[in-house]
Amino acid sequence: MSKRDLKKYLNELTKEQLEEQVLELYDKFKDVKVYYDFVFNPRENDLVKDAKLKISNEYFPIRGKKPKMRRSVAQKFIKHFITLGVDSFIIADVMLYTIEIAQTLSAEKDIKQEAFYKSMLNSFEQAISFMIKKGILSDFKSRVVAISAETLSQNWMNQYEFNAIVERFDY
Hints:
It is a single chain. Helix 5 runs antiparallel to helix 6, helix 6 (88-108) packs antiparallel against helix 7 and helix 6 runs parallel beside helix 8. The chain is elongated and about 65 Å long. The chain starts with a helix and ends with a helix. The protein is built from nine helices and no strands. It has helices spanning 3-12, 15-28, 30-40, 44-59, 71-84, 88-108, 114-134, 141-153, 159-167.
């Protein structure tokens, strides 16, 4: 069904029928419930606190001994925040936090997996693209430059790619 057909169908419904359908969607689909719960009670601070806790747990586990370092955990939160329509500044903050917490671990522990560094570069590129698209890159300039500088100080294998990304922008 196209969006146009859906609009036509919705216009034919009475207010009561429309309310009934929305309530049915709310009951049947978790995503609809999550969306409406967020719309009416955004609690962005709680969402961010929970996301950052779970992301940091990937690199500094509360239970267990070995960090899992899964980028996918952060990516799920970021995707979820974008879907909900969370403020762009909050999303950018979580994107950069993910890289910063990984760098904190890297400073403490020698990481040999090339995939880790490639993954962090992908996260960095996605964060930069997102901030450019939203027009907020200048608001995060100091953190972006600090992340790049940290890759140099830790001698990451792809440090020059991080540096090249930062150098492309005229601040």
